[in-house]
Amino acid sequence: MTDKEKNDDKKPKKSVECCGYPVSIFFIVVNEFCERFSYYGMRAVLVLYFRYFLRWDDDLATSIYHAFVALCYLTPILGAIVADSWLGKFKTIIYLSIVYAIGQVIMAVSAIHDITDTNRDGTPDNMAVHVALAMIGLILIALGTGGIKPCVSAFGGDQFEDHQARQRSTFFSVFYLCINAGSLLSTLITPILRGQECGIHSTQKCYPLAFGVPAALMVVSLVVFIAGSGMYVKAAPKGNIMLDVSKCIGFAIKNRFRHRSSKYPKREHWLDWADEKYDKLLIAQIKMVLKVLFLYIPLPMFWTLFDQKGSRWTLQATTMDGTFGTLVLQPDQMQTVNPILILTLVPIMDRVVYPLIRKCGFNFTPLKRMTVGMFLAAMAFVSAALVQIQIDKTLPVFPSSTQSQLKVVNMGSAQLQINIPPNTPVLLGSLQASEDYMTFDTPDITVSLNTNPVINKTFTLSLGQRQTLIIPSDPNAMYLTKDLTSKPEQGNNAVRFVNGMTTALNVSNVALINPSDVSNNTLVPQGSRTFTITDGGQSCQFSAQFGFGGAYTFLIPSTLSWTENCGGSIVRVEDIQPNTVHMALQIPQYFLITAGEVVFSVTGLEFSYSQAPSNMKAVLQAGWLLTVAVGNFIVLIVAELAKLPDKWAEYVLFASLLVAVCIIFSIMAYFYTYIDPAEIEAKFKENKELEPDEKEAKESKAIEMETHKTLQNQDDETKMTKI
């Protein structure tokens, strides 16, 4: 370490000011905006990356998502210890930001299809490579974002002098605004980037771009922070109070266990067993902290529900319609409702709701507010369950493993009556399909056509599958084709074409279709799509409008009109109904969960700050972050153990658990006595018991004073006698 660095560590220099504010905070604010953009942008598309790129099921995608979030809220404790005890805030931010940026870059690389060979359906051939890279990237990101979390805001506060209290308050307001601005913009932008198509050998959703932009922003964040290095006030590490607290608690437990014999006098509190080694004021402060931490025990359940916005609720949105007039929202963009509502509700609650409650004479204490916040979060999940019930009503009923389903399509020019026992006969006109799928409990069926002569043909259906019976112009050549047995993923639409002509056709972006054949399903996004059909010498175009999550079969007749626009000749058959439940129905649940967050989280931080000793506010902050981590671990347990067949039932389960915890917390809050830590500390210092050596010194001094006073009196008497 150079002499300059030593001086910087021991004696921080005064920051350069502009308009009363340190210039250095500009770099810190920009750094925070870019970092939050990077984190929330990556997290917004993360569960869909797990679900549709790594091909994990809903439960595994949810579990890994919440394991990552939990790790992000465990690592701040490590970051605080490293910064306060060893490296200092500045170096900790630099080193962990480098780790953070590397993690984001690795995540972007993990999403590139072409780093491994791809299968015919476009999925990576060696998925283990992508999974390994993703896990390494997420661990590094969790270490980086969590490690710098407790350092950046505190480092910003270090830049202000004692006389800049007003400016410091403004800085924290701007700092909080940057967090929400970064979150809002990133959750709007990265889903759009994800929705693009990219690739070299195969075209897929562009997760590399969705992760790459946050990675670039993290690099920018690091560069901006380093650029302000010469202007920062860099306070030296002063030791970590969390370590002192841990050591004191550990010593008390160990000492109590050592002196568990009944011959030792009992102590009023188990922490008093630490007074042989630790200052009584420290012990009293730890008692205050433990009293608040005890109240934290039920709190993780709130975060269990709250953080499912980015997992279960995003997956729910993939089965909904995101068309808002001319604006089309992606499922992961619904998360932007949360930061928008936060910026709206915080001032409304502070300026309108709380003052109104006080005017009505209600004592709306912080713990009562937190109880209301937990109840609102539970109601949010009840709302989500009601939305899920509406979604389930619109989902197609697919066959069980012992059933088969069949649809019939008449590609001929004459009307046909089709009889497939035990179902009722179906009358189909030219280029017409049966309205619904017919369900069969046995695989073997006999199809009868009312042609002259009557045609009877036997087919064996695949169990657990949907199929379509195509009847071409020559009914004797009828054939089966396999249909989808699940909704198209990510709100896309599945389209396929039936070629009723005698020549091969090429449909743009689909495939070459042989005569009397059916193309494979091709996924197309929501919106308008134009297709070009060619037979080698002739071509025509037609357009179709698509919603979210539908499946369609386009019938190309043998009498196709080769005009510029041949859409009038082509018939569209709906195999799977598109999503009809609108994403707007998620707004009430987002409103309730955000209102709960404002009442619960903001109040909880305020309560923790007011009830914590002056030197232990960081300890309670660490405890608060720990409740978030535990809450996400609870999601893992419930998601893996509950295994409920219906998603709405899982939402009701979470809501019920939170209501039960809410009742327990309200009872604990009823018996809690609010304190003023500053007043207690002041009284404790005044009434502090003296140590034995201090008592002896005090008594000695008292005797000396008394002797001096006696001699003085005797001297005065002598003088009076002389007079």
Plain-language structure description:
- Interacts (via extracellular domain region) with trypsin.
- This protein is of the alpha+beta class and 723 residues long.
- It folds into four domains: 1-239, Up-down Bundle (Growth Hormone, Chain: A); 296-396 and 578-696, Growth Hormone, Chain: A (Up-down Bundle); 397-485, Immunoglobulin-like; 488-576, Immunoglobulin-like (Sandwich), CATH 2.60.40.
- It is 54% helix and 14% strand.
- The chain contains 19 helices and 24 strands.
- The strands form seven sheets. Strands 7, 10, 11, 14 and 15 form a five-stranded mixed beta sheet that branches.
- A hairpin with a 3-residue loop joins strand 17 (505-507) and strand 18 (511-513).
- The longest helix is centred in the N-terminal third of the chain and has 32 residues, at 127-158.
- The protein is elongated.
- The termini are far apart.
